Structure formats: C-alpha cells, structure tokens
Amino acid sequence: MGRGREKGRHQDRVDMSKGSSDTGNVWAPIVPPFVIKKTRDSNEARRPVIVGTNAAKKILYDRLAINEPGPGYVHLPVDIVGEIFLEQMTSEHLKTTIRGGFRTMRFVPRRAMAANEVLDCWVLSLAALRYLVERKFCSLERVAQKTERDLAEYRSPR
After folding, report:
1. Rounded alpha-carbon distances, angstroms, from residue 150 to 143, 147, 153
2. Residues 35, 38, 39, 45: what is their CA dihedral angle, to the nearest 10 degrees?
3. pLDDT category of residue 50 using cuts at 50, 70 and 90
C-alpha cells in the first residue's frame, strides 16, 4: 500500500501503510476508522494508514489454533506450503511482561534473526482486506458479489 496521488482517473488507487509499534495492553485496530484531514496544500492529508500489527498477528495465531474447518479456519495446503513457510508464519510469539507496574504484551521473535516475511505479508494482506471492505466496498458480501460477476464475465464466451 504506497500512496499515489496523481490527478485523473487513477486517483485514490494506492495508499501508504505503516505498522504501529504498540507495546502496551491497548493495541491499535488493524485498520483505524476512516478520517479525512484537510491540509493547507491539498484537499486531503497524505498520511499512511497505521496498521495494528499486534492485533493482526493475534488474529492469525488465534485462527491457526482452530483445528476444524469452518469460520476462521486457516487452510494451508500441504503440497504448496513447506516447512520454511510455516517457520516464518509462526516466527513470533506473544510475550507478557510487567513494565512500570503494568502488564504489557507484545510479539517477539522465537529466536534471534528469525525470518518473518510470511507473517508480515499475512498481516499486510489482512490489513488491505479490512481497508478495502471498510473504505471501498462496505461489506465482504459486496466484494464476493463483484468477484462472482467479474468471474462470470471472464468465463463467458465472447
């Protein structure tokens, strides 16, 4: 998600994102509520969408704990997903510490210098989906309907 603000028909196609660095008990939402802030130089401020990375990681790890197919279940095909993919997806764990008399939770690497690109990609994908649903389509049902229409149009003979 990077922000391109060109004038014309491609305006509002791309937005920047930035991961939040929450360390306390209150984590940022995966995608914050939509607020337009006016600036002196433009109609809308060019600020990145702050992605609540801790909240997204918590959702992933909660979903990975679901053993039965159904809502929230993460299906990982054995023939596609390898050991390295799974190591990167689960490269961090939730650590609870006492800091200044308050309990704080944050995700830390399981081992030093562990690669976590798969985890980061999953977090960004979830944030992009939530962003699109909230700001562009309003519901996943509308996204699914549009996808079905697009697929039907693509499959129909010309």
Report:
1. 10, 5, 5
2. 30
3. confident
